[in-house]
Amino acid sequence: MSAVESIDAELTELLRARGQRVTSQRLVINRMLRSRDQHVTAEEVLGAVTQTLPGTSLPTVYATLELFEQLGIVRRLNSGGGAVLFDSRTVDHHHAICRDCGAVQDIDDPAELSGVLQAARDAGFAPDRAAVVVDGLCAACAAAS
Amino acid sequence: MSAVESIDAELTELLRARGQRVTSQRLVINRMLRSRDQHVTAEEVLGAVTQTLPGTSLPTVYATLELFEQLGIVRRLNSGGGAVLFDSRTVDHHHAICRDCGAVQDIDDPAELSGVLQAARDAGFAPDRAAVVVDGLCAACAAAS
DNA sequence: GTTTTTGCAAATGATTTGCATGGAT
DNA sequence: ATCCATGCAAATCATTTGCAAAAAC
């Protein structure tokens, strides 16, 4: 089974398990997300998907990304730069967001966040996960200023 | 000197230091932000300020909040719930954001984030600060589900 | 065949911009 | 008197919604 077939099979199983339909749009968007393991906007998804599946619409992209979020294969990321980013890396990691250009960079580090999670629980909150957001300047903007 | 006078004096000094003008809107918005030490939307600021200074406009509120951000007395907070939140607590703290209702809760905890900051530097990023964002359900939404 | 998904067009809602007036220095 | 800040109205942009046609089951 090829890489694409395996990726398609995984999504198919997730959808079937919830009684939802396996459409070409869903398959193509999923392939696109896993081929680029990075943060993308809905517009970027549409641009890439249109090459394979012309006529795909932005509302469908949004609906699909929301569905994928419920399936746990995509995470929403509020970077503050106008559009929401969708992150297909679901392993724990952190984000550095440039205050000038809004670029988002992944940061991998085994930070110890159990204290914060416990503090959230103590405050009556039921946490799913926690991640660090770093504010500052990306390399390009730091060099420019 | 009363509390309000002291708050006004601080802002006046910050503005003068940058050659910017001390206007009644800026003073009133600043007083409002420090009286409620919590996250507010631009609309909420307008609502509160209008009671003291009727006729104040939303563009002015946005301009003022952006200015205050540059002055370092307010921080922007992207909670994902439609509107941006402005946070007048500038001491380091974390945020718990409810995935259902979007409510934001402050979390105080002395998390050790120097590793993440160093990892960001290693990646070429110039960090200003870092904070933890906790995702999950607030007490009300957890009880409802 | 039945129900879900899609695509289109239009609505929504937060934030920003252009420009003339008013206010601070 | 000068120049910055404000208010108004309109523009912008991402995202959502309503509904009929197409596709998956």
Q: Any key phrases for this structure?
A:
homodimer; Arc Repressor Mutant, subunit A; 3-stranded antiparallel beta sheet; 6 strands; 46% helix; 3-stranded mixed beta sheet; 145 residues; DNA-binding; 2 domains; Dna Ligase, domain 1; alpha+beta
Short synopsis of the structure:
Helices cover 46% and strands 20% of the residues of chain A.
Task: Note down, in words, how this protein is organized.
The structure is a homodimer of 145-residue chains. With 145 residues, chain A is α+β, with helices and mostly antiparallel strands. The first copy, chain A, has two domains: 3-78, Winged helix-like DNA-binding domain superfamily/Winged helix DNA-binding domain (Arc Repressor Mutant, subunit A); 91-144, Dna Ligase, domain 1. Helix content of chain A is 46%, strand content 20%. Chain A is built from six helices and six strands, in the order ααβααββββαβα. Chain A has helices at residues 3-17, 24-35, 42-52, 58-71, 114-122, 139-144, and strands at residues 39-40, 75-77, 85-87, 94-98, 104-107, 126-137. In chain A, the strands form two sheets. Chain A has a three-stranded antiparallel β-sheet. In chain A, strands 5-4-6 form a three-stranded mixed β-sheet. In chain A, a hairpin with a 7-residue loop joins strand 2 and strand 3 (85-87). The longest helix of chain A is centred in the N-terminal third of the chain and has 15 residues, at 3-17. The mean pLDDT of chain A is 95.
